[in-house]
Structure formats: structure tokens, C-alpha cells
Design goal:
The protein is of the alpha/beta class and 506 residues long. The chain folds into 4 domains: 291 residues, Rossmann fold (3-Layer(aba) Sandwich); 86 residues, Fumarate Reductase Iron-sulfur Protein, Chain B, domain 2; 57 residues, no CATH class; 36 residues. It is 50% helix and 10% strand. It contains 22 helices and 13 strands. It has a 6-stranded parallel sheet with strand order 1-10-7-4-2-3, with helices on both faces. A hairpin with a 4-residue loop joins strand 5 and strand 6. Helix 3 packs across helix 12. The chain is elongated and about 95 Å long. The structure holds iron/sulfur cluster (SF4). The site of iron/sulfur cluster has 15 residues, from helix 13.
């Protein structure tokens, strides 16, 4: 796992930045997803209106979460589903293991589910002797590699086909060529056997429809459909915020989610599941459980800074748009969720924020995540809030705090700014080469390891401003007399209004 053992986000990011394979693979795929999303949104037209509709649906649902959760649970029970509520990760795991034990399960096939990653469910199942097999191709690859997902929707984004071929060759017991069709064909065959043998199928849930107690899965490989139809028992685990009120609301979500995630108009498969197999059904599970998980989500309810996090539909668009994620990949964030959503969600899900207080630094605060988000979650504001909370809780970097104090003192006074610039111009001579600062000494190391800093110019803006009037007058001499006269009038009027000089504190 990339940088998994490093202690801080900075150390993990350092490891990722030095991994050329990872950087290339992540950059390649995120670029592809980003341009696909842009094209799909443009082709769809009035994208901003749809984003706003999506946002309103999510705001309304979360504002009435208790009502819709109860409605969903009542309807699901009426459909013959066993509905369970789990307040903590431990409770959700306990409920799952109890079902597996009652069913004397030996193997579980899983479709992609971030919430089961959050619960570390595979390890828990293995601890009671139940084999848990990931059946999404990307998840299967990282399971073989002993890693965690590094992207919400493309878990193996950090691997190229040569690395995948090496992993799958070990599993196959023979050398497989690094050709996508061969590799996918091998996994397909291997997983067919696992689907047929499995005692339990386990899925996540993209959306739960309150009005009918149904759940909806979006996927491209057909594995979720196999997981939810072949084994006799199905367990669906869902975060409690997955609810939407109605099928009509799903139309908006089905417009936003695939386009934002992969640039597809619709995923290859979209399954709506309303209860276990009925007597007239050809297939489907005989027993079905839904476990609705809180695990820190209710901490966000009623929190003015974080409540909108519950609107997230886990599309991954903010990861693809983030210039930081595109360089460091997902494992640098250290938690289950990565990218801008992970940088906010991970500390928001925890009571002990100190453990994660550096994660909000993995952002340039450019706002690209907000622009990309189909439900308009203001992640950049939340990141600023997290940074403020870190400083106010006394976990801030002392050196950074002193630097900011000094910077504020200089910027508050034009005299001090002038003196600082003068000093800087002399001091920089030690580190400037060819007009650029390339030194990696002291605080310059972080910046200059991957880019160069420009030097202070020989003439500052303020110095230039002082001579600007003179330069303009010189320039006017070359103009047509009529234009010159108009310009001179304008300058005169401006001077009379007192606008010829620059203000005091700049
Ligand atoms: S925050 Fe927005 S863009 Fe990011 S995963 Fe959630 S819904 Fe998608």
C-alpha cells in the first residue's frame, strides 16, 4: 500500500510523489474521467439546473432523514426484508457476522462497497473463517495486492496493466500477458466459480428508495447483479444517508451520478431490488437483510459546518478534479475515503479529530472539488473550517503560526512592506539563479522539490506605480492630439478626485 505506514499525510504524500508509476497511472485515469464528465455534462445541457435539483433533493432528504429512514425501513420490512440499524462499526460487523454464523457460511461474494471498507468487514469475516471475495475487477485486484481502494469508484486507479498482470499471474499459477481482455477474461472465469459456491452475497447501496423500500445499485460489470441474485442470502450494507424519497428523485440522481463518476450517460447495469425472491421469480435471494449504518454520520446532522457532507452521492468527481489528489493518489489520505471528500469526511466521521488534523492540508483550496460536485457540496469551505478548527484546538504548526503573524504584521503597514521587500531583494541574491529560486534549503524545500519559485523583481509594483504617471505622460506624446487631449483631461479629473496616488496601507 502506498505510504500506508507513514505517519502523516505529508510523509505519505512524499512517498507517493516519488512513485512515478503511481503518478502516471493516477494522472492518466483521472484525466480520462474528468474529460468524460465534462463532455457528458455539456452534451446533457443545462447541467447547472440539474446540479441544483440534485442538491435540493439531498438537502430535503437529509433535513427529514428520520422520517425517510423510518418510511424506508417500514416498506422494506413489508417487502420481506430484515432491516437492522447499527450505531457503530462494531455493531454493524457483529450483525453481519451473526447472520454469517447462523447461515453456517463459508464464503461471501461482495460487490463494491465503500461502507464495508469503512467497517473492515473482510478482515472480520476472515477472523471467523469466512472467505470474503471481492467481485468488482478493481476491488479484486487490490484484494489480491493486500491493499485498500485508492479511489471511490476506481479502486485500483494507482496500478497499471503490467502490475495487474503480475498479480493475476500469481493467482493463475502461470504468466498472463498484460492485455486487458486476457486479464479480465481470467478474472471473469475465476469469479464465476466463486459466485456459484457462495453462501452469502453482500452489496452496498447507491440509493435506497423510501417510498417502496427498494434499493438501487449502479455498476458496469454485472457482478453486483450476480452477487444479488445467485447466493441464497443477501446482506446489503448502507450508510444511513443513502436514502432518497422516491423513484422520481432517482431520475435526477441517475442523471447526475454516472455522468459525474465516469462520463457515462448511464452505467451498464442499474438494478432496483425490492425484497427477496418471490414465488414467481426465477432467481434472487431467499433471505435478505439490510443493515443501515450510522458510524459517525449522525455527528454531522445538525452541524452547520458539516451537515451537507451527508448529501454526498460518492461519485468520485471531486477526486478527479482535485490537483492534489491527481498527484498523490488515494492512499496518501490514510483513511477509507480519499480526495477532497475524504479530507473532510474522515475527520467528520470521528470524534477524535486530533488523529486526522493534518488531512485538510492536502488541498490547494482552489474550489475545483465544489465545481465538480454534482450536488454542490462546499468542500473547500469545509477544508478551511477544518484548518481553523485545528489551529483553534492548539494543534496548529507553531512555526506556521509565527510565520502568519509576521506576514500579517508586514502586510498591515506599507512602510514595513517596503522595508521587507528591500530586505528580500538583497537576501534573495544568495539563492537566485537565472531569475528563479531553486534552493531546497529550509522552508523552501517543500515547494522547490517539485517546482521553482520566481524571484522578487528588480522593481516592485509600488516602485513602478511611483513612476507610472511620468511613463503615461511620455506615452501620450506619441498619440493622436485629439486622443491625447481626452486622456490628459481624464488624468486631470482623476487627480482632482484624489485618485492619482496609491493609498496608505496598500
Ligand atoms: S463530494 Fe460531491 S463530487 Fe465528491 S464524491 Fe461526494 S458527491 Fe461526488
Amino acid at each position: 500500500m502506498t505510504g500506508a505506514r507513514a505517519a502523516t499525510v505529508k510523509e505519505r504524500a512524499e512517498l507517493a510523489l516519488n512513485n512515478e508509476f503511481l503518478r502516471k497511472a493516477v494522472r492518466f485515469t483521472t484525466e480520462r474521467l474528468r474529460s468524460g464528465k465534462k463532455k457528458a455534462a455539456e452534451e446533457h445541457g443545462n447541467w447547472e439546473d440539474w446540479r441544483e435539483r440534485g442538491r435540493q433533493i439531498r438537502l430535503h432528504t437529509i433535513a427529514h432523514l428520520d422520517y425517510y429512514l423510518n418510511l424506508f425501513a417500514d416498506n422494506a420490512r413489508a417487502n420481506g426484508v430484515h432491516v437492522h440499524f447499527a450505531e457503530t462499526a462494531a455493531e454493524a460487523v457483529k450483525l453481519t457476522l451473526a447472520i454469517a454464523e447462523r447461515k453456517s457460511a463459508r464464503s461471501v461474494v461482495k460487490s463494491k462497497s465503500m461502507v464495508t471498507e469503512e467497517l473492515h468487514l473482510n478482515q472480520a469475516l476472515e477472523s471467523i473463517g469466512v472467505e470474503a471475495i471481492e467481485t468488482d475487477l478493481g476491488e479484486y485486484i487490490i484484494q489480491l495486492a493486500g491493499e485498500t481502494p485508492s479511489h471511490i469508484i476506481i479502486p485500483a486507479i494507482h496500478k497499471n496493466r503490467y502490475q495487474v498482470a503480475e498479480l493475476l499471474s500469481k493467482e493463475a499459477g502461470e504468466t498472463l500477458p498484460p492485455e486487458t481482455s486476457v486479464l479480465a477474461g481470467f478474472v471473469r472465469k475465476k469469479l464465476r466459480e466463486k459466485f456459484l459456491e457462495a453462501d452469502i452475497g453482500m452489496t452496498g447501496c447507491n440509493f435506497a428508495i423510501a417510498e417502496t423500500g427498494s434499493m438501487v445499485l449502479f455498476e458496469n460489470e454485472g457482478n453486483a447483479r450476480m452477487v444479488s441474485t445467485v447466493p441464497k442470502t443477501q446482506i446489503t450494507l448502507m450508510g444511513m444517508e443513502r436514502i432518497i424519497p422516491s423513484w422520481a428523485d432517482l431520475e435526477v440522481m441517475a442523471t447526475l451520478l454516472p455522468r459525474s463518476a465516469t462520463g457515462q450517460k448511464l452505467t451498464v447495469y442499474m438494478s432496483g431490488i425490492t425484497g427477496p425472491k418471490r414465488s414467481a421469480d426465477a432467481d434472487g435471494p431467499e433471505e435478505m437483510h439490510i443493515i443501515i449504518i450510522d458510524n459517525g454520520r449522525s455527528l454531522q446532522l445538525g452541524d452547520p459546518e458539516f451537515q451537507e457532507l451527508l448529501n454526498c452521492i460518492r461519485c468520485g468527481a471531486c477526486l478527479n478534479a482535485c490537483p492534489v489528489y491527481r498527484h498523490i493518489g488515494g492512499h496518501s489520505y490514510g483513511g477509507t475515503y480519499s480526495g477532497p471528500i475524504g479530507a473532510v469526511l474522515t475527520p467528520a466521521l470521528k470524534k477524535n479529530v486530533a488523529e486526522w488534523d493534518d488531512i485538510a492540508n492536502a488541498s490547494s483550496l482552489c474550489g475545483a472539488c465544489y465545481e465538480a460536485c454534482p450536488v454542490k457540496i462546499p468542500l473547500h469551505d469545509m477544508l478551511v473550517y477544518l484548518r481553523r478548527r485545528k489551529v483553534e484546538s492548539g494543534h496548529g504548526d507553531k512555526l506556521e503560526a509565527a510565520g502568519m503573524k509576521g506576514y500579517a504584521a508586514v502586510m498591515k503597514s506599507s512602510g514595513r512592506l517596503k522595508a521587507a521587500l528591500k530586505l528580500g531583494k538583497v537576501g534573495q541574491k544568495l539563492v537566485v539563479r537565472g531569475g528563479e529560486i531553486r534552493s531546497k534549503l529550509g522552508p523552501l524545500k517543500g515547494w522547490n522539490s517539485y517546482r521553482v519559485a520566481p524571484s522578487l523583481p528588480s522593481q516592485t509594483f509600488r516602485e513602478r506605480w511611483d513612476t507610472l504617471d511620468q511613463e503615461i505622460r511620455e506615452g501620450l506624446k506619441e498619440l493622436d492630439p485629439a486622443v491625447r487631449s481626452r486622456m490628459e483631461d481624464m488624468i486631470k479629473r482623476r487627480a482632482e478626485k484624489g485618485g492619482s496616488g496609491h493609498g496608505g496601507n496598500g
